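Researcher: Please translate sequence to C-alpha cells.
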Amino acid sequence: MYENTKEYALGEPKVNEKYQIYHFFAEDPEGRTIEFQHFLHEIPELSSS
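Model: Translation complete:
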C-alpha cells in the first residue's frame, strides 16, 4: 500500500509493537490526515447476526 501512496505519506511506515500494527500516515487531497494499518496478529472474524 505504501508504494502506491507514498507521494501522500507524511513519513515512512513503522511497526508499532504496543498495538502490533505496521502503519503510516498520509494526507488526502482535501488535507485530512488518514492512517493506513496492517495488523501483525490474527484478529477474530466478526459474524453478522
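Researcher: Any highlights?
Model: The radius of gyration is 13 Å.
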